[in-house]
Design brief:
The chain has 12 helices and no strands. With 227 residues, the chain is mainly α. The protein folds into 3 domains: 77 residues, MazG-like (Helix Hairpins, Orthogonal Bundle), CATH 1.10.287; 41 residues, no CATH class; 76 residues, no CATH class. The radius of gyration is 23 Å and the shape is globular. The termini are far apart.
């Protein structure tokens, strides 16, 4: 049995210590055996459960699920540390440096950024600095950086947004959408269906709403209309 001080309120250092105890030789066999791959899907599931708490406006769910996401961050970091890689302090250091670098309008006297007046300018600067720090020198580099692990609908919308902001807006006028629909209807071709879906995502971006959220709401509507 491992002794661990019980408290009314724990802090981050307590969590880190607890994780190390769980993954120690005297701790939990399951926790010791886990790898980045073995708990990959757990991270995805916990993230979606956080979203559920947000969507339900339920602070009880949100509080619990944020803790589960934090557990995943500490878990992955401890796995790396045990393999002589990075630790949680490296993760926090990288994050703090990123926030400092990408908020020059707050933390820098650089005249290029001191005149920032709205959130659109903040996002434009954020993306420009991101490209610079990650060595992205072309539109292809920027598009390729959009995570392939994202849900395809969400990824398509992010790609459409980047194309639009780089002067290559996608043709998503109603007549184009109709042509793509007719193309799919005549061929029943998955590639034609993909082109139609991408054009719909580009249309959502053009109209400044979120395609993923729109489909989420329609899913809920379909469920509720069949009560």
């Amino acid at each position: 049995m491992i002794e661990f001080e019980r408290k009314d309120k724990y802090d981050f250092n307590d969590l880190r210590k607890l994780m190390k105890l769980l993954r120690s030789p005297e701790g939990c066999p399951w926790d010791r055996e886990q790898t980045h791959k073995s708990i990959r899907n757990d991270f995805i599931e916990e993230t979606y459960e956080v979203i559920e708490g947000i969507d339900k406006n339920d602070p009880v769910i949100l509080r619990e699920e944020l803790g589960d996401v934090l557990l995943q961050v500490v878990f992955h970091s401890d796995i790396c540390e045990s393999e002589n890689g990075f630790d949680i302090e490296d993760v926090i250091t990288d994050l703090c440096n990123k926030l400092l670098i990408r908020h020059p309008h707050v933390f820098s006297a650089d005249p290029r950024y001191t005149g920032v007046s709205d959130s659109d300018q903040v996002l434009d600067n954020w993306n420009a600095i991101k490209m610079q720090t990650k060595g992205q020198s072309s539109l292809y580099d920027e598009l390729e950086s959009v995570s392939k692990a994202l849900p395809s609908l969400y990824r398509a919308e992010k790609l459409a947004k980047k194309l639009r902001k780089n002067g290559k807006p996608q043709n998503c006028e109603p007549e184009t959408l109709n042509d793509l629909l007719n193309e799919y209807a005549s061929d029943k071709d998955p590639e034609a269906f993909g082109r139609l879906l991408f054009a719909l995502c580009a249309s959502a971006d053009k109209e400044k709403f979120n395609a993923e959220e729109a489909l989420y709401k329609e899913n809920e509507r379909k469920i509720n209309e069949n009560r």
